[in-house]
Amino acid sequence: MFYHLKTNPDFNGKQVGLVFSNSATRSELRSAFKRLPGGYDKEIISPIDVTKKHYDIIICDEAHRLRRNKNLGMYITNFRSGNTRLGLDDTHDELDWLVKNSDCLVLLYDRKQIACPSDIPYDVFHQRLDISHCGIRPVELQDQMRIRAGNDYVPYIHAVLNQKQLSALNFKNYEFKIFCSFSDMIETLDMKEKSVGLCRLCGGYAWKWIAKDSPDRPDISIDGVDVWWNRQTGGWLRNPNAKQEMGSIYSLPGLDLNYAAVVIGPDLYYDTESREVRVNRKHFFDNKVKRSVADDELKNYILNTYAVLLTRGILGTYVYVCDDALREYLGKFIPIVR
């Protein structure tokens, strides 16, 4: 859509921007558009950029990641400056910026990818648009054309994680399996990287970022295999030295892999007495997400995070589960390699 608007003569002279909140996503898209003539990469922008000039048309992908004033961490300074620039107070948010500084707005929103308290909830999001834009026209995208597993795969992942799936499904032409050995999964992923490329390890925020202060110390050690959190955001997918690094919800939203190897860490476990998937707060280290958040809300954020990671792989998804009981539960729905 963005490329069409930029190249169609009917839209000559129009100010068109493609907005992504996530810096890693912007970096990858800018790199792709730099290969094309026209300088379109300069119009792949952040929400704060929208506060600096008026646009005729804004397309915002991953609009569920637009931020409100809750658990913003260090971003609060930029957030306040954006509101000030538009004459707004801090009860307003990044959605307000896009509404105020554009004539036509296209938003792609998925409530099932809400992953932290700063994300604007669906009811607030929808209500705001009803009030601000009487001409809102919702369009539900029912077909997904990324993952070769087909249209049933994404809802299946959400149903399994939320314990609503009653029976297992098989997905033809798609590699989907649980590894009991972390080192075996890494070895298999390495082989896929050599054959098809764009294969990465990713996981939930279930380990401290040790290497931030001690770069030589691994952040994660599983089955004697040392792993570091991704050392960069922009360009991480294109870095051939990132094979022993683990991506997160911050490095992969809106991006695709050929094969994703997902580690479900000790932040989730299966309670065999209550037969429930539960959260272990002590093993969840994203303070921006868990600060002042109740257990049920935190569980929803964490499950959505793993659902995002489990739906990055175009050709296949490999899974390693740290909690034995959770592995057995998930094994009812995902084939286990023993």
TrEMBL record:
Residues 42-323 form the Schlafen group 3-like DNA/RNA helicase domain. It holds the Pfam family SLFN-g3_helicase. It comes from the Bacteria. InterPro entries: SLFN_3-like_DNA/RNA_helicase. This is DUF2075 domain-containing protein. It comes from Dysosmobacter welbionis.
